[in-house]
Amino acid sequence: MDKLEAVLERLSKKHCHQDTTQDAQPCSSRPVQKQSEADNEIRESMLRPELDAAFLEAHGILRRFQSVSFENIEAQGVPQPIIRQYDAVLDYASHLRQNIERGMGLIMLGTPGLLKTTLAVAVLRRLLETDIRGSGYMVPMVSLIDNLFTMRAMDKVEAAEYERRLRKCDLLILDDLGGEVTGQPWVMSKVDSIITERYNRMLPVIVTSNLDAKTMAGTYGGRIIDRLRSTGTVLRFNGLSLRKCV
């Protein structure tokens, strides 16, 4: 609200004092297009929040990925092995609100180090930059299970709020599905529950995984995978890792 008030105050001063001649109209009688100009500037300020580090981290984008965007990926050059997959993800992001309304997500499977997580982050950043209505969250599966286990043992209220966010945000990104320990029944049950509720609410999920479709089906069961595949485009990534040694 502080940001909106600042814009309104600046616009009021601009419009009321830009004409100081005797024939100047009072601010209240200015033409309608002045209000339109004000509306446009307010809308622009609201649709493009300041994506500082704290804001990005609150949506699950941690430091290593905070500079990721489609623009930065293209500036560095899209790697040849994933051009087709990149184009598909960019097309998804270019129609992001429509895909969210339809409950359509993405499933990116295959070899580690082929920018699956990077592309998922780029989609989430596009949502945060351009859609004031959009709420998105990204979480590595290892962290999700650890967070739920820790919160359940220490703070049930916090755990409930965290789980509500996973179930109801506009766009949920589950990074590295299969990277978590799946041997305990409650883990499988929780993953099933979250994906099933989002499926029933028609809320999209973007999944990245180093598993292939067959292994994933064997790990999580046919029902979960069937629901993900019925509401998401499957993109397969194959090739040598593109990660650079540092």
If you had to describe this structure to a student in words, what would you say it looks like?
There is one protein chain. By secondary structure, the protein is α/β, with parallel strands linked by helices. Helices cover 57% and strands 11% of the residues. The chain is built from twelve helices and five strands. The chain has helices at residues 2-17, 32-47, 53-58, 70-76, 83-94, 96-102, 116-130, 141-154, 156-168, 185-201, 213-220, 222-230, and strands at 105-110, 136-140, 171-175, 205-209, 232-237. The chain has a five-stranded parallel β-sheet with strand order 2-3-4-1-5, with helices on both faces. Helix 1 (2-17) runs antiparallel to helix 2.
* Side-by-side strand order of the widest sheet: 2-3-4-1-5
N-to-C span = 43 Å
Mass-distribution shape: globular
The strand count comes to 5
Low-pLDDT segments = 1-8, 10-35, 38-48
Kindly name the structural category. alpha/beta
**Largest sheet, strands/sense/barrel:** 5 strands, parallel
Q: Name the helicity range.
A: 55-70%
* Percent of residues in beta strands: 5-15%
Radius of gyration (CA) equals: 22 Å
Order of helices and strands: HHHHHHEHEHHEHEHHE
Average predicted local confidence, pLDDT: 80
Total number of helices = 12
